[in-house]
Design goal:
The protein is α+β, with helices and mostly antiparallel strands. It has 2 domains: 76 residues, no CATH class; 56 residues, Nucleic acid-binding proteins (OB fold (Dihydrolipoamide Acetyltransferase, E2P), Beta Barrel). The protein is built from 4 helices and 5 strands, in the order ααααβββββ. Strands 1-2-3-5-4 form a 5-stranded mixed beta barrel. Helix 2 packs antiparallel against helix 3 and helix 3 crosses helix 4. It is rod-shaped.
Length: 155
């Protein structure tokens, strides 16, 4: 069987397999198939230069795949995965001014002094009546709504 594969599988088969793995990588984005593809291309190019039997090609492909995937994961592990772009270091002490009056359990609008999650104007709710121009602080963030309390409270 090994003799048959040694005579049948040529260098361009490995290069083609590598290209197919790289194309599959575009659909998955895992970097694993990218490592398999790069290793297959390297085995194909090595087989073009140095004639190897299929078993040696297979072992070399496995070793190169493991090495390349390991290097890719080590490199990309150091890269930041979360960006702070558009975010602020808001806290519950962030102050704002009511621009549209807020009735209990109804929506109004608040303009914050510093951006909250990238925006300064937010739809807001409250458990109490807040007139336009009132100073408020954040009690909690509920998805696209911010629950506010008067700024003099420390809840």
């Amino acid at each position: 069987m090994i003799e048959f594969l040694t005579h049948t599988v040529t260098w361009w088969h490995w290069v083609l397999l590598g290209l197919l793995f790289i194309i599959a990588e575009m659909a998955t984005g895992t970097f694993i198939t990218l490592g398999f593809g790069l290793a297959a291309i390297l085995v194909g190019l090595l087989d073009l230069v140095v004639n190897m039997n299929f078993l040696l090609q297979l072992i070399l492909w496995i070793l190169l795949s493991v090495g390349i995937v390991t290097l890719l994961f080590k490199y990309f592990k150091r890269q930041p995965t979360v960006s702070n772009t558009g975010q602020s270091d808001y806290g519950f002490d962030t102050l704002g001014t009511v621009t549209e009056a807020i009735a209990p359990h109804h929506r109004g609008a608040v303009r914050f002094d510093t951006p909250v999650l990238g925006n300064t104007v937010w739809r807001a709710t409250s458990d109490m009546e807040l007139a336009e121009g009132s100073r408020v602080s954040i009690k909690e963030v509920q998805g696209q709504l911010i629950r506010v309390i008067p700024a003099i409270h420390t809840n």
